[in-house]
Design goal:
One of its GO terms (molecular function) is protein serine/threonine kinase activity. Keywords: Kinase, Transferase. This is Tyrosine kinase catalytic domain protein. The chain is built from twelve helices and eight strands. By secondary structure, it is α+β, with helices and mostly antiparallel strands. It has a four-stranded antiparallel beta sheet. Strands 1-2 form a two-stranded antiparallel sheet. The protein has a two-stranded antiparallel ribbon with strand order 7-8. It folds into two domains: 101 residues, Phosphorylase Kinase, domain 1 (2-Layer Sandwich), CATH 3.30.200.20; 167 residues, Transferase(Phosphotransferase), domain 1, CATH 1.10.510.10.
Length: 346
């Protein structure tokens, strides 16, 4: 179907198609909201307390603005408002709608659930639970003694779910290198100290230049697989795959355990680029010095970074190895934060 065509839309498989003839390029925010509602996304407009919403965004930039709100029963929620760019092609809008729809269907303990959508001050808003502990990076800085290996397992579990669930198989794959531009924004900590991946769809949306405005932060060299580092002439042909996701997953796990971005020995990205050109991995940090569990963990990371993407493990395999090698029996039943700290301390 040509990008500028009108189309008749209906729910089919994992897709999202309008039930009436419409041009995607001309969809208003209200139209988008209505379309998502018709295809199963919950309309939470009546459940959000108008006076409980912040006047201004509490978090700005990124792929959208986030407001803090309250439901009628007093539950704190986050309301992410999508911002549309001035020039959108129909294919991009169609793709965006499908991704928001898919997010609404995701159900996993380590995925930040989309509760529903609302018409928020004339714009499409996505509602999710407010994560009172904020982002994982900030939480680690405040609680440096936490055993972080359980969080590695939880992040791998979320990624494995996205890679294996039928809802996400028919679409462009999740590009974790965009998710992992920092733990600061996209891996959140819930009330019970469980980590949840947020904005897993945003890399797809930004790749299609759709609803979210850019912040000028490009995909970080510190997380992107070598095969994604084509020249500008090759950029259009770069394909993001599950293997490139696994590479970025490995970098994210390194950041969780060390508390520092990958290649932290390099202050600037040109140092990282030189290291990548030489085929060098991040240096093994003191936090992963020789010891059975740490040695197994480091070897798993190295496998994730294999220059031959076909030789990298699947996300499910990463999850299995983490469960076997970094979560031995003596660490069982110690709670989501591991053996060094308990929930009572928070």
């Amino acid at each position: 179907m040509p990008n500028n065509a009108h189309s008749t839309l209906s729910a089919s498989g994992t897709g999202l198609r309008p039930k009436a003839t419409v041009s995607y390029a001309n969809l208003s925010n209200k139209d988008m909201f209505q379309l998502l509602f018709e295809h199963g996304c919950k309309d939470l407009s009546s459940q959000i307390h108008p006076a409980g919403c912040s006047e201004y965004p509490v978090i700005g930039g990124g792929y959208g603005d986030i407001y803090k709100g309250k439901t009628q029963d007093g539950t704190d929620v986050a309301i992410k408002v999508l911002r549309r760019s001035s020039s959108l092609d129909p294919k991009s809008v169609k793709h965006a709608m499908r991704e928001v729809h898919r997010w609404s269907k995701a159900r996993h303990p380590n995925i930040h659930e989309l509760m529903g959508v609302i018409d928020f001050r004339g714009q499409l808003g996505m509602v999710s639970l407010w994560m009172e502990h904020g982002d994982l990076r900030s939480f680690i800085l405040k609680n440096p003694g936490v055993d972080r290996y359980p969080w590695c397992i939880q992040v791998a579990a979320g990624v494995s779910y996205l890679h294996t669930n039928d809802m996400f198989l028919a679409t462009t794959l999740v590009e974790l290198s965009a998710l992992c531009l920092g733990l600061q924004m996209n891996i959140l900590v819930s009330k019970d100290i469980t980590v949840r991946i947020s904005d897993f769809d945003c890399s797809i949306i930004s790749d299609s230049s759709l609803l979210f405005s850019a912040t000028g932060q490009a995909t970080s060299l510190r997380y992107a697989a070598p095969e994604l580092m084509g020249s500008s002439d090759d950029e259009a042909g770069v394909e993001k795959t599950r293997q490139s996701d696994v590479y970025a997953l490995g970098m994210t796990l390194l950041e969780i355990v060390t508390g520092a971005p990958p290649y932290s020995e390099y202050r600037f990205d040109f140092g990282v680029l030189n290291a990548l050109a030489r085929g060098n991995f991040p240096k093994r940090p003191p936090a992963l010095s020789e010891e059975n569990r740490k040695d197994a963990f480091w070897n798993l990371l190295v496998r994730c970074w294999n220059p031959d993407r076909a030789a990298r493990p699947s996300a499910q395999r990463v999850l299995t190895r983490l469960q076997v090698e970094t979560d031995p029996p003596e660490f069982k039943d110690v709670g989501p934060v591991g053996k060094y700290m308990s929930l009572e301390m928070f």
